[in-house]
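Quick one: structure for this chain?
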Amino acid sequence: MTNAARLSAPLHSPVKLGESLGRIGSLEVRMARNFKEVKKAQRLRYEVFYEEMSAIADAQTQTTRRDADPFDAYCDHLLVVDHDTLKRNKLGRLKPEIVGTYRILRQEVADQHSGFYTASEYDVQKLIDANPGKRFMELGRSCVLKPYRNKKTVELLWHGIWSYVLRHKIDVMIGCASIEGTNPDALADQLSFLHHNARAPEQWRVRAVEDRYVEMNRLPADKINAKEALRALPPLVKGYLRLGAFIGDGAVVDQQFGTTDVLIIMPVSELNARYVNYYGADASRYAS
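Got it. Here's what it folds into:
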């Protein structure tokens, strides 16, 4: 049986709750089955954002030890679970541990609720209005448990995203990516490197909202050590760049999460053909 023949569902069929999208060894990428699993993903996010990184928790977040907001209720949640690491739930049943997650919000769902989360930082509506025939999707709240931050886990997450994109006929992916730290001057090399080397062309350019706009063009191109700047960028941002992502105009400082955010814009038509071929035009590489 070929890889393509092992796909769990035809490409035209939307991704379902709990559906498995791929597997490597003990690791499986699938959609969250229910809100109990979403809560587990929120606990993972809390562990990474608040305990490991420098996000500042409000009273409710401290009490629940979950990173949660109203968007979680209507987003889809992509999970990587490890079937070799089992944890007992409140009923005493052993369940595989959730070790990675991504939050996904499709444009038609966003339109029915409060829009995209990204709109609080970037004027994404202008881009959407300029592309009325295209289907947009937002990626956010990406995190992986520290021992699992390796090629295998990241590849599974991207395999799941690519499957989702194909099945829902998505044309453009957007989302904020974070660089740790809230002092733009201390991040001048990284921000300037992105400005000079990855800024979106005019037709895809999105500007940070005026009251939060931080200039990224902090150093001239010939004053940047490109090798060092690229090395300093977070792995997630580097991964987006390898896929062929563009960067929006202006950064945004997020004091709550202790980060400086940049906007990622990934038109599916502009994605690096090498990576599309790697995961398969039918997302069959790691199909379950």
